[in-house]
Amino acid sequence: MKPGIGRLSWLYFRVGNTTFGGGDPTMAALQRELVERQHWLTREDYGLAYSLARITPGTNIIAFCAATGAKILGIWGAIAAVLAETAPSAVLAVLLTLGFESWAKNPVMMAAIAGTVAAVTGMMWASVWLLVRPYLRDTLSLVRVVLLGGGAFLAAWKFGVTPVPVIAVAAALTSFSGLGSLAMIHNDFVDHRHVLTDHQLNTAVVAGRTGPGPNGVYVVSVGYLVAGIPGAIAGFAAVITPAFLVLPLMYWAGKRADSPRVKSAIRAVVIASAGLLLSVSMPLARDAITGPFALALVVASTLVLAFTKIDSAWVMLGAALIGLAAKLF
Fold it and tell me: Does the global pTM surpass 0.85?
């Protein structure tokens, strides 16, 4: 039996805004609710939505919500699921950004924030490893990762090539998710338009990752820092709009998701995205690493996030407490 729009919205609101750690933990929690408990989706429906969300531009978890919501209640189900998942966490991200900005002149609070900034740098380095690790199966795979990932890193970091052609070339030779868009945002807002500093971008990422919900809501914080509430609204629209591209994919490209050529292109894009993410982390790392203590925090955060299943929110909270303790004692 299909639910009403209110019941559907409540489920996505409850799961999406109480689950930390980004898309994968949320999609796992939704699998239990949608498939095992409510029986609104079959396992095949879930698998199709999951696979197509991974190749949809934008934030994977938002595309997944659009796909599963549409499968249950059509277009209105997709809209309800996306808004219930993202709107509360977007508002929280703006409130956290406001808090971080108001604490800028408080040395004690800035010490705590410095700890979280170090953890964010570690999180990005860990993300690079987690992106490429599945493709390190043999010598040929290692060569592919070095060429595509290293080439993307050098193109962006050393030669200043913008992320769009890097990603396009990677796909031609052989989706962004969460922080995958960070390279483009850094290029546009920090390097070219100069409307954000590296420190402000770090603050936006911390705000987006501190609360529950999609990792991509940091874009809402970016919009707020650039243009206030109108900018936050524009950032929210930018976060959720690409997710609806999954809907035609559900009807048209579902059977093509296992195509060897499509898989190869996606693999190349993921590896190139890892290289871009590494290039973006370099100026942010310069901002975060202010001494041996901060460097130790970055390294520790990288190792914990790369090799354990500890929620990133706990890592950032721990880094904030360590930074605060170092300031006080």
Answer: no
